[in-house]
């Protein structure tokens, strides 16, 4: 437990330190007149993710092995991708029916999602780095601390949700963390989680940009997208993807 907390605090502290350093460098180069726009934010996030990846791999806090992928688990990865697709609409519906939570990072998220370079952070770096840190290091440490794997998975999912520093994102991140943690526990590998994370973030990125073009907003209601009468049908259809995917994963996932 102690190591898991240390890893979480260090990961959060790294983000703060990188933000301060990049701001100082930016001001040094451009002076106080330098506008910290989207490019600055994306550059900061890229630096943070790359440094975080290097830190956790170099110290071996996260242990990454090729053993699992050498078993050629292509069907597991396929069903992992399907599970991610099946989660999207139910997650949107849940977000709409829950009490509205403050979106402290709405402006920054919109800038990130609306930028082509933002995909490097959202679709490539975040899935890799967050799986290395939260499953490869934090959950791994928790599983050594306690034999109750669901308790460990729940704690790691809660830490994953809190690490987003944004109440509006926390419920989805927590639920995703449960799925990602379960997959790591069953396989001992971060690869299935990376696939789920990549599909989820890539679809979210694509949906934001399509929605901006179609509706003038990156966060349309489900009624706008599917029509008032078809919202529950969309949820049920997605569950018809998600539930078989979870069933297949439960059958097929195993350690190397």
UniProtKB/TrEMBL annotation:
Residues 117-202 form the CAAX prenyl protease 2/Lysostaphin resistance protein A-like domain. GO terms for molecular function: endopeptidase activity. One of its GO terms (biological process) is CAAX-box protein maturation. InterPro entries: CAAX_protease, Rce1/LyrA-like_dom. It comes from the Bacteria. The keyword Transport does not apply. The keyword Amino-acid biosynthesis does not apply. Pfam families: Rce1-like (PF02517). Keywords: Membrane, Transmembrane, Transmembrane helix. The chain crosses the membrane at residues 43-64, 76-94, 117-138, 190-210, 231-249. This is CAAX prenyl protease 2/Lysostaphin resistance protein A-like domain-containing protein. It comes from Xylanibacter ruminicola.
């Amino acid at each position: 437990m102690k190591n898991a907390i240390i890893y979480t605090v260090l990961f959060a502290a790294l983000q703060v330190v990188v933000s301060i350093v990049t701001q100082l460098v930016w001001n040094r180069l451009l002076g106080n007149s330098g506008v910290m726009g989207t490019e600055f934010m994306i550059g900061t996030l890229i630096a943070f993710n790359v440094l975080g990846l290097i830190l956790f791999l170099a110290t071996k806090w996260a242990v990454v092995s090729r053993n699992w992928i050498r078993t050629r688990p292509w069907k597991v990865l396929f069903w992992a991708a399907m599970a991610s697709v099946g989660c999207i609409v139910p997650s949107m519906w849940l977000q709409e029916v829950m009490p509205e939570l403050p979106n402290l990072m709405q402006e920054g998220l919109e800038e990130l999602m609306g930028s082509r370079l933002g995909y490097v952070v959202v679709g490539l770096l975040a899935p890799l780095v967050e799986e290395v840190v939260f499953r490869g290091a934090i959950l791994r440490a928790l599983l050594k601390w306690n034999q109750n794997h669901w308790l460990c998975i729940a704690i790691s999912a809660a830490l994953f949700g809190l690490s987003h520093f944004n109440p509006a994102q926390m419920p989805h991140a927590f639920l995703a963390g449960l799925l990602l943690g379960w997959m790591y526990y069953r396989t001992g590998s971060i690869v299935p989680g990376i696939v789920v994370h990549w599909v989820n973030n890539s679809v979210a990125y694509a949906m934001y940009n399509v929605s901006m073009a179609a509706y003038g907003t990156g966060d349309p209601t489900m009624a706008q997208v599917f029509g008032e009468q078809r919202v529950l049908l969309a949820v049920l259809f997605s569950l018809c993807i998600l539930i078989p995917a979870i069933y297949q994963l439960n059958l097929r996932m195993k350690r190397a």
